[in-house]
């Protein structure tokens, strides 16, 4: 999409033509940690066991199981 090595158009001009923010062209998303993957899997397991479960119920179970307070942030998202 964007050629960072172009001699004809600067990256800024290419971004402008594509209606993109130039800084977004350099963004590289952070990888997901093993701990986050475990948390996602556990949330999925809880929800699969009881599909009517809300975020408060799932958060309560996770806290009972010893997950940190970040678990509630994932449930609310």
Task: Tell me about this structure.
By secondary structure, the chain is mainly alpha-helical. It has 2 domains: 30 residues, no CATH class; 47 residues. The chain contains 4 helices and no strands. Helix 3 runs antiparallel to helix 4. The chain is elongated and about 60 Å long. The model has no long low-confidence stretch (mean pLDDT 83).
- How helical, in percent, are the residues? 40-55%
Distance between the termini: 31 Å
Mean pLDDT: 83
Characterize the biggest β-sheet. Answer: none
Number of strands: 0
In summary, what is this structure?
The protein is an all-alpha fold and 77 residues long. It has 4 helices and no strands. This is Transposase.
Task: Describe the protein's topology.
Layout: H1 11-17, H2 34-49, H3 55-64, H4 70-76
What would the keywords be for this entry?
mainly alpha, Transposase, 77 residues, 2 domains, elongated, 4 helices
């Amino acid at each position: 999409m964007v050629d960072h090595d172009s001699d004809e158009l600067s990256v800024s001009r290419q971004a402008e033509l594509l209606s993109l923010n130039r800084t977004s062209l350099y963004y590289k998303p952070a990888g997901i940690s093993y701990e986050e993957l475990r948390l996602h899997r556990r949330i999925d397991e809880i929800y699969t066991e009881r599909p009517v479960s809300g975020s408060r119920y799932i958060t309560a179970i996770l806290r009972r199981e010893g997950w940190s307070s970040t678990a509630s942030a994932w449930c609310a998202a």
